[in-house]
Every structure is written in C-alpha cells, then in structure tokens.
Amino acid sequence: MAPTCLLCWVCSLLCAWSVVTGHPCSLDHQGWANCSGKNLQHAPSSLPRNITSLDLSFNSLVMPHHRTLLKHFPSLQSLNLSSNAKLTLNPAVFSNLGALRLLDLSSCSITHIHMDTFKGLGNLHTLLLRNNSLQKLDVPFLLPLKALFHLDLQHNALVSVDPWSLQLLETVPQVLLEGNPWACDCSAHPLQQWLRRRRAVQVTCMSPPGLRGQEIAALDSQDLGCQVKQRFARELTTPQNITVTENNSTALPAGKGGRSWPYLVGFLVTAIGISILIALAAKCKLAHKNFASYRHQPLPEIGSIGRSPMEDSSSWDRGSCGSHSITDAADLQAEDDDGFIEDNYIQPSEQLPTKEERELHRSI
C-alpha cells in the first residue's frame, strides 16, 4: 500500500503544479507532459525542467526566428511536434535539447530543412519526417545527427535523390522512403542500386506511366531508359571523407572528375618518349649508312689484278724513271675518286686474266 499511496501523492502533486502554474498540459509521475490539441501557438514556459517526454502535437505552434523553441530541458528525451501546420524549422532551433532521443515532425507541411536545423542533437536516435512536402532531399541536415538510427521520409514529395545524399544515408541503418512520387528515369539508377543493397521493398515508381506502381529495386537499366555505367555503383560504395567544422559548415568531398588526368598525362609522356626514340633510331641509321658509304674504296686497275703484293710493292719502289707514270696515274685516279663505286666501274668485257695469261706475263 505504501508504494500505491506514494504514487497517488506524486500524481496529485503534479496536478496541483499544473493548476498553480496555469499551463494546460497534463503531467504524469514518469515525467511525461501531454500538451496535445490545446491550440497552443507557443510552447509552455512553466513546465518543470525534469520532464522526459513532451507532446505538443495538433497545435498551431510558431517557431521563433532567433531563439530555441523550448527552454533548456536537460532530461527531455522525446518531443512530439507532429501536425503543427505552421511549423518552420529554423537553424539551431533544437540546440538546447542535447539529451533528445526521439523527434516527431510528421505532418507539419515542411518543404525545406536547413542544414543546421538539428544542430546540437548529437544523441538523436529517431527522426520522423513523414507526411510532409519535402521535394528535395538536402541530406547535409543529417551531419549533426551522429547517433541517428531511424529516419522516416515516407509520403513526401521526393522525386529523385543525388548520389552524394545516398552516401550520407548509408550511415543511417533504417531509412523509409515509401510513398514518394519517384521518377524512374536515368537519374534513378543510383537510388535503384542503393535500394538493392538495402533490400528495400515497396519503394515504387510514380512516373513514367508505363512503370507506375513497379518497385524500383526490381527494375534494370533498360527499364530506366538509359545506358548505365558501373561508375555509379562504385561511387556509392566508396567511402568519402565528409568534414564538419565547428560551426557545422560542411566540406563536400573532392570531385571525381579529375581522377583521369594522371592517366592522360602518362599517356602523353609515353607517346612523346616513343616518338623521340623512333626519331633518334632513324637518324642514327641514316648516319651509319652515310658513314659506311664513304668507306668504299675504288677497285684496283686491271693491270694490278692477279699480281702478288711483292710485285705491287716492287713496282711502286722503282726509280725516277717510273715516277712520271705513277704521278699521271695518281692524277687520273684523283679525278675519278669520289669515294663511290660508279655504275659500270668494271666493264663486263674486262675479265680477270686467266692462269695461263699470268704465267705468260711472268715469263716475259
């Protein structure tokens, strides 16, 4: 009976607190505050600081422009803001709720999320954004959410999503994308590969009419109407370093378009080197040919053919009586000696002397 009496006493105390403070919310002994459907335009400022759950759904809350939505609640773990049609998400509007684990923003007509909207929510586990009007998924808003496990994006106005946003979504184990009007064309191929890896089902096409209602993961590249390169899958599976600065500004990963320039430079250097080697080889061959042609010697005269070296040397060692003839022969040879063997240098009729002729010449 004692615990029951204590529980009743806590409930009575919380009810009395709500009456004294004048806020329309109901409190329970577990720290849960229910302010749903009270037509509130501003969050109550008189709630106890130790509450763990706050329901502000189905109101007409107006977000402040330059301050946080709620005062500091160090123990608040669950916040329900669903079905507030005038809700506008400004930067750092939840920055003082560091212990928050669940945030419900469903059915709030949200069309855009600033990348710093969830700044300070490093412990957030579940984010519900279903039944809104998000047309473009600017996923950098997920960067401050280091502990995010469940993201609900069902029934928005999403038509496509870029590959880099899909890479950021890879860090979230559970992502729900059903009920969006996805366009199944060439741009949907990265999403198709992402859904296949996640084994996601019930994510269907809205357009073109021929593919309406078909699951995106079950389609192939021909169904999407374009020739798809394997580069998309490699981009989605390759991790990239994404930097977040102290003020939560995002440094995008380096572009991939410059990966091919080292191959181009290598190809050009190789081509130029080969061309130089070919030119040097051709030039050396031509020089060798010219050098070899200048080393040709004229053939000896007919009279010297068949004589022994001793006879040749004795004929050149004769006295002055033969010097005149030698000089004349040298002059004649100098006129015709250009280093080349001319055509018909040896006439066909000029045959080498036979052995009998050489014997006869010696006897004489």
Automatic annotation (TrEMBL):
Residues 300-364 are annotated as: Disordered. SMART domains: LRR_TYP, LRRCT. Keywords: Leucine-rich repeat, Membrane, Repeat, Signal, Transmembrane, Transmembrane helix. Residues 353-364 have a biased composition (Basic and acidic residues). Residues 180-227 form the LRRCT domain. The keyword Secreted does not apply. InterPro entries: Cys-rich_flank_reg_C, Leu-rich_rpt, Leu-rich_rpt_typical-subtyp, LRR_dom_sf. The chain crosses the membrane at residues 261-282. It holds the Pfam family LRR_1. Residues 1-22 form the signal peptide. Residues 311-326 have a biased composition (Polar residues). This is LRRCT domain-containing protein. It comes from Junco hyemalis.
